[in-house]
Amino acid sequence: MMQKEDQLFDLVINHGTVIDVIGEEITKKCIGINGDKIARIADVPLRGSKEIDATGLMVSPGFLDFHSHVDGNPYSAECLIRQGGTTTLGGERNINSKTIKTIEEEGFIVNQGFFVSQSFTLRNAVGITDMHRPASEKEIMVMSDLARSFLEYGAFGICFGLEFVPGTSYDEILSMAKVAKEYERPITIHLRKDGREALQFFDEILRVAEATGVKVQILQLMYMVGIGGAMSPALKIIEKARKHGLDITADSGVYDAYSACIGTNIFDPGWEKEYNGASVKDLLIASGIHVGEHCTQEMFEQLRKKSPGTLVTAFVCDSDAITMALQKDYVYVSTNAADGPHYPGMGAPEVSGTFPRLIGRYVRDRKELSLMDAIRKITILPARRLSLDDIGSIEEGKNADLVLFRYEEILDKADFIGRGQPDAPPVGIDFVLINGKVAVEKGKMTDNSHSGTLIRPSV
Predict the structure, then answer these.
(1) Residue among 351, 361, 283 at smallest CA distance from 319
(2) How far out from the chain centre does Cα 12 lie?
(3) Using one digit for the tens of pLDDT, what is the confidence trace for 191-204?
(4) Helix, strand, or coil here: 59?
(5) How does pLDDT run across 50-73, given as a tens digit for each residue?
(6) Which of 85, 240, 294, 320 could tie 80 with a disulfide, CB 3.0–4.6 Å?
(7) Are residues 189 and 266 in the same domain?
């Protein structure tokens, strides 16, 4: 038996198989934690006030969700942490200042960061209520100053939901991008359209990137261009831009369907053509009185008119597009989860299953990419992109955000409403630690429910 080191730590994890995303090695190690930091990594067992025997478990950095809509929602955060997500970024749909202050003062289930939303927060602040109206020159100046105040407070960048606010002009994007560049923060882009129609709108983003040098993150490739055969040409556009020196990355999902409100312009007349001849029969109602029912033409028209906020799941994506995106080193994996109120039995499976699905299905079962590549996509790569120095790796002095899982068992169990339970927890995740506290043990939430905090960029 190996002799234990004498130092006593608050918590130790012994005999685990540690995934080192910096050295890109997977080795047996023991980890000592004091407070919220990793204090010691050793080859021999360590002593602690509390000890976790990680024999048979993989030990990974906590998973970082680059793009979601958790935005301070407790149940969404609970679903996220049960699947290993310890850090999430939001704000695209206008996270409010009260929520941010509450997280900062009282803690939260996960580490929560935010972008400032051009499409909602900034436009609303200058009184723009018409999503089709471009901002005036004066309004853009006011929005720019307000964006600076958010960035100085700790916003990670500026996000654009162009599909939801089609009136946003090129000048508006350019001006906001210049502000983000002042602080060396990225802009994130939800493209103006889905499917092949989206391809024509890459040009304005590339022009902005070239004109300003700003870092660009294109959000949710799978749910934007994983439709109608658009993924391959979209990736070629990104790769060409990167070869020309533009700083462009993206994130994507691991499901071949997505949820959206039936009243959005996604489903404006002609949408079926963009989705390779899809029809209303490919839509499954995910909220309201018809929840779980397949849509009919009559139902579609009535809901669009009278209940436009009704969620539907669109089974219209190209399954092979998932792998196309995953195999690119500049594409991270995010959940895009919990858009709107999320509570037990509702929502979409991404918030409960994205990361276990990535590891269990696409790494272990299908061997579409290596475990190391997959883990890096949800830890160190997005952490570096976001200038998060203390998150994303297992190193002494770094935050003790860790996921302990059984590689042979990890798998998602959630499914879309009408086909299964959207918030079913995954299997194979034994422990999740956030800031040195055990938040999930044997798949169940512990009393350490507010060990997360408001996070800000390191620079």
Answers:
(1) 361
(2) 29
(3) 999 889 999 999 99
(4) strand
(5) 999 999 999 999 999 999 999 999
(6) 85
(7) no
Predicted pLDDT at 311:
87
Strand-pairing partners, residue 333, are 252
Cα dist from 185 to 245, 377, 388, whole Å: 17, 19, 12
Distance CA 224, CA 259 (A): 12
Q: What backbone phi and psi angles, to 5 degrees, belong to 321?
A: -70, -25
148 contacts: CB under 8 Å, gap ≥ 6: 179, 182, 183
Q: Alpha-carbon distance 400 to 291, whole Å? A: 40
Q: Please name the amino acid found at residue 181.
A: K
Under 8 Å between Cβ of 120 and 144: no
Same domain, 169 and 91: yes
Q: Rounded to an integer, what distance in angstroms lies between the CA atom of residue 398 and that of residue 440?
A: 20
The verdict on 269 and 174 lying in the same domain is no
Q: What is the DSSP string of 101-118?
A: HHHHHH-BSSEEEEPEEI
User: Do the beta carbons of residue 338 and residue 353 sit within 8 Å?
Assistant: no
The whole-angstrom separation of Cα 18 and Cα 46 is 15
> What would the two tokens of residue 207 be?
């022009």
Per-residue DSSP letter, 67: S
Tokens of 452: 């997360």
Helices (H), 83-160: 97-106, 123-125, 137-153
Q: What confidence category does residue 165 fall into, taking pLDDT thresholds of 50, 70 and 90?
A: very high
Number of domains present in the structure of the chain: 3
- Confidence class for position 338, pLDDT limits 50, 70, 90: low
Query: Does 180 share its domain with 323?
Result: yes
Residues near 28 by Cβ (< 8 Å), separated by ≥ 6?
15, 16, 17, 18, 43
Contact call for residues 252 and 334 (beta carbons, < 8 A)? yes
Q: Average pLDDT for residues 334-359, to the nearest whole number? A: 83
Q: How confident is the model at residue 339 (pLDDT cuts 50, 70, 90)?
A: low
Are 308 and 263 spatial neighbours (Cβ–Cβ below 8 Å)?
A: yes
- Residues facing 284 on adjacent strands: 294, 313
Range of the domain at 311: 258-315
